[in-house]
Specification:
Blueprint: H1 2-7, H2 22-28, H3 34-40, E1 45-56, H4 59-62, E2 72-82, E3 85-95, H5 114-118, E4 124-126, E5 130-135, H6 139-148, E6 156-166, E7 169-177, H7 186-192
Antiparallel strand pairs: 1-2, 2-3, 3-7, 4-6, 5-6, 6-7
């Protein structure tokens, strides 16, 4: 029974439910584009695309994107890297029923940030953020580990997710924050204070 509970996360509308440290809470509640904040907080920023293809969504993703059950979706996974280190693992799912007019640039993003599309398109409506603590055994952590190709220390990671709407199309972005995100800005603040 314990293994089953590790595979599901409890998503909350209020970040306080996670009891996250103040620095992490600040990142989780970033208003506007997380990508823009990562760019401002580092000297070099890069989106490393892990993959983009059809896949089966997880049980906890189906309902938020309007699916009655677990189904195949378009899936995109990326690592957002700052100053050469992965800071955030991004996981996006789009129902197969979404049309090219719903999300016209999704299939052609390559190594560009999805955030630059979402936050600068006046037709995109952002839903409320939800927050969770993901524990070892959660599918997203296993995927993150595989994307990184190296061991990550820690038994739990903080994440947030949000559903976006454009026309009739829904798209959900989940961002898992790696420990390196807490070091961002410190280097920049030191540089600017000189």
């Amino acid at each position: 029974m314990r293994n089953a509970s590790l595979r599901q996360a409890r998503w909350h509308r209020h970040v306080g439910a996670l009891q996250a440290p103040a620095g992490m809470r600040d990142w989780l509640t970033t208003k506007g584009s997380l990508t823009a904040r990562l760019v401002r907080s580092s000297e070099t920023f890069r989106v490393k695309r892990v993959h983009q293809h059809a896949a089966l969504c997880s049980p906890e993703e189906a309902a938020p994107i309007g699916l009655p059950r677990r189904e195949r979706v378009w899936e995109r996974e990326v690592l957002l890297c700052c100053d050469g280190a992965p800071a955030v693992f991004g996981h996006t799912v789009v129902p197969m029923s979404a049309s090219a007019s719903d999300w016209p640039l999704f299939s052609a993003l390559g190594e560009r940030s999805l955030g630059t599309t979402l936050f600068y398109d006046p037709l995109v409506v952002r839903g409320p953020l939800e927050f969770a603590r993901l524990r070892r055994g959660h599918p997203l952590l296993e995927r993150m580990q595989s994307a990184l190709g190296t061991a990550v220390t820690g038994n739990e990671f903080y994440a947030r997710r949000c559903v976006y709407r454009r026309h009739q199309g829904l798209l959900m972005v989940t961002e898992v924050f790696l420990p390196a995100v807490l070091d961002l800005g410190a280097t920049l603040r030191t540089y600017l204070s000189r």
